[in-house]
Amino acid sequence: MSPPTRGASPSADLPLPAFPRPAFDSVRHPVLAAVLAEIDEREASGEAGSAYYSDAADPR
Amino acid sequence: MTRPYRHAGAAREGLQDGRAGARDGRAGARDDPAGARDGFRQFVLKVHSRCNLACTYCYIYTGPDGSWRERPRRVPDTTVRQVAHGIAEHTARHRLARIRIDLHGGEPLLSGAGFLISYADTVRSAVRKAAPATRVDVTVQTNGTLLTEAALDRLAAAGIRVGLSLDGGTAALNARRVDHAGRSSWRAVRRAAELLASRPEAYAGMLSTIDLATDPREVYRSLRRLGPPSLDFLLPHANWAGRAPGRHRPSPTPYADWLVPAFELWWADREEGRPRLRLFSEILAMLLGAESATEAVGLSPLAVVVIDTDGTIEQVDALKSAYDGAPATGLDVFRNSFDEALRHPGIAARRQGLRALADECLACPVVRVCGGGNYAHRYAARTGGFRHPSVYCADLERLIRHLADRLATELDHGPQEAFLANRGTDCCN
């Protein structure tokens, strides 16, 4: 089986939007608010930007 | 001491990526060299090299890599002390504020809770002396079958959090997770899940490998009922050398077809106790401009190194699904430092961001979120290397675009196409 070629899907060349990041307490959606709060915490702690092992649960 | 396992594969992997050279011209404004973030931050310590289960999809014991046969069953005390010394030295040199220790296997609880605590304490003690300000987070990833209340009490008291591996919240959903006699592990694992749910301070979360034969909604709901604080859905380790399980299906994106309904349930879950779902959270975070914290997606440099039971320093286990010896570095804790491991070509290739990716990935509009997916999933036997799109390329793209659509709707941007019509097409890359 060979690696794919691009262009198979109708959206293949559609760029992703660049979303502005709202404050976590300004959004109504609870899941989105939790994600935003987590981003803030991660960036404030200096822990952003490292890729951790996917076959291990993250410590909390 | 068992001679560290060596294989030419380590050099082959490095050469494949090294020969391609730098791709700065097409890397764009956001290129993330490894040097920007020094040091390993996560040390996966193999405590026991064997497992009491024989999950049918296990890539470690039934995959192409046979190195586990040469490893001591349990890590010897001399290796524990040397590992601790190496981690402490590395942590101090790089002035790391925080490191993660993951006690892993095989099945780590085959060594007993006492040994796990002793290993963690040895590492903590060494780090405390060399780098007193460094926080050390310790987890153990287990199949749960040997987790008793007494063991959990001891682990919790020692500040070790437990991660549980299971594929759903019912016996039927865990049909592939059997012991060596083919018996279901479910009763023991359910007991472990219930124990952990009663001790949230000791519960790291659950990892669940996707099985296309299951209903994703049933998987999410049944796992949700077990009360994990965190959950992740893992793509089975596969690559272009052999079919990913289920890729014969008519749909070109069978894994995205599975993940999207699971995402929809999680996205709509407003009840207390909703778990964090790592894959979805990371994709959403990156769509909002943050950097990834998982090797599964994104461009962040890999922070993890593995130390096997004989002190061999290795790359992540997922590479064992590629070819025999793929994770090997030729290094070990007795003769080499973790800084030498940082410079190993295979590890360096995973800390180069865009520069390690295939041309097809660099030309792709979702590359900064996808990041090429899990490195192990890019392997192609015809080239012997990893500079290819993921075998899950189409699934990842579909999933990322679906999450982007949901985000656009929630942030009042409307569907992607409408948003772009308003903003023009120069908003990205």
What does the model show?
The complex is a heterodimer of chains A (60) and B (429). Chain A is mainly α and 60 residues long. Chain A contains one helix and no strands. Chain A has one helix at 30-45. The longest helix of chain A has 16 residues, at 30-45. The model of chain A has no long low-confidence stretch (mean pLDDT 84). Chain B is α/β, with parallel strands linked by helices and 429 residues long. In chain B, strands 7-6-5-4-3-2-1-8-9-10 form a ten-stranded mixed β-sheet. In chain B, helix 6 (186-197) links the parallel strand 4 (160-165) and strand 5 (203-209). The model of chain B is unreliable at 1-36 and 415-429 (pLDDT under 50). Classes of the chains: A mainly alpha (60), B alpha/beta (429).
Properties at a glance:
A: 60 residues, mainly alpha, extended, B: 429 residues, alpha/beta, 15 helices, 12% strand, disordered N terminus, disordered C terminus
What characteristic shape of chain B results from the CA principal axes? globular
Distance between the termini of chain B: 51 Å
What does the average pLDDT of chain B come to? 88
Shape of chain A: extended
Q: Helix count of chain A?
A: 1
Query: If helices are DSSP runs of H or I spanning 4 or more residues, what is the number of helices of chain B?
Result: 15
Strand residue percentage of chain B? 5-15%
Approximate helicity band of chain A: 25-40%
Q: Of all protein chain pairs, which has the greatest interface, and how many residues does each chain bring to it?
A: A-B, 48 and 96 residues
Rg for CA atoms of chain B: 21 Å
Major β-sheet profile of chain A: none
Low-confidence stretches of chain B: 1-36, 415-429
- How big is the Rg of chain A? 17 Å
Protein name (chain B): FxsB family radical SAM/SPASM domain protein
Region (Disordered) (chain B): 1-33
Domain Radical SAM core (chain B): 37-276
Biased composition (Basic and acidic residues) (chain B): 14-33
